[in-house]
UniProtKB/TrEMBL annotation:
The keyword Transmembrane helix applies. The chain crosses the membrane at residues 21-45. Keywords: Membrane, Transmembrane, Transmembrane helix. It comes from the Bacteria. This is Uncharacterized protein.
């Protein structure tokens, strides 16, 4: 979560929107968000399965 907040902070700065660095930051942000969603989804599924096993 800390990395996502850091990248959001970087993107808000106008200098980061110029050239390839802005695109790179957006790419990293996108990867971070997708990765976080996958982890959350796996945790929810794991919790759901464990609750129903016992």
């Amino acid at each position: 979560m800390l990395l996502i907040l850091l990248y959001r902070g970087e993107i808000r700065r106008p200098s980061f929107l110029d050239g390839t660095m802005g695109k790179f930051s957006l790419l990293l942000l996108g990867i971070g968000v997708i990765f976080a969603l996958i982890i959350i989804l796996l945790a929810v599924i794991d919790e759901y399965l464990n609750d129903h096993d016992s």
